[in-house]
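Hi there,

I know you've been waiting on this one. I reran it after we fixed the sequence typo, so this is the corrected version. Both the input and the resulting structure follow.
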Amino acid sequence: MRNLKDDLACAKRAMSKPLSDCVLLADRHHGLSEGIRGLLETTFSSVFLVADETSLIEGARLLRPAVVVVDLSLGAGDVPGLMRELRARAPGAKVLLLSVHDEPSVLRSAVAAGADGIVLKRAIATDLLLAVDEVLAGRRFIPIFEARKPD
């Protein structure tokens, strides 16, 4: 049985280095986020779920996750600002953005803001774990077909 002392020790270890088996998932849509969590748990031993930007930034600081999966809508129109905050709080983390928007301008701006990858919400089942593998290997994951379409 875990206790508070064990949890604090875990948090201290997390602050010193990225956890290779830890993912921080941020999405406001509870039903969708639970499904995404289940998918990520097939690969990672720990998936932490938050539903707002403040919790996302604090979670990134405390957990130092290997991967952060964020609904693009959490950026409230300031995706570059959100990316700066995430990079400052969890510098080693790879950041994947989830988006319902497939417009090339949206995808390009997300990449320009510093995202390591983008997964369209309609393709989560087929693309999310592939995207995680790609960004952990140091490559970007972008829906190429969508990014090349004219606006």
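Quick highlight: Confidence is low (pLDDT under 50) at residues 1-10.

Best,
R. S.
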